[in-house]
Amino acid sequence: MRLRATQYLFQAGWLGVLTSVTVLSVLPGSGQPVPFSFIDKIEHFSAYFTLSLFAEALPGYQRGRMMFFLVGWGGLMEVIQNYIPSRDLSLGDFICNAVGVLCGSVVGLFLSRMTMRAGRMRS
Known about the structure:
There is one protein chain. The chain has helices at residues 2-26, 38-54, 63-81, 91-122. By secondary structure, the chain is mostly helical. The chain has one domain. The longest helix is centred in the last third of the chain and has 32 residues, at 91-122. The chain is elongated and about 55 Å long. The two termini are 15 Å apart. Keywords: Membrane, Transmembrane, Transmembrane helix.
């Protein structure tokens, strides 16, 4: 029963993170030109890492399809930003999104295998 509650918590978390990433991606910028910012790249990586990691708990989860979806979503958000005042399309941001998805998937795979092994050891 505890595992099911944890899955629901991660599913709700995934929807919350996806909604937050989407909203923050389409808000107008501050109007200030932003030179290459290391913090900005960490924010992009972290957002898509979290999305990818939380996706492990989604029902019917298929890693390859989810990675394709999330990388595509990150690309779409970058294209949309090109049409928002004070925002622009950034290849660097897109790459950080994609690397975040890849790393989140790897960590998620590792954690799901650890969880399965722990469950088998208890049985």
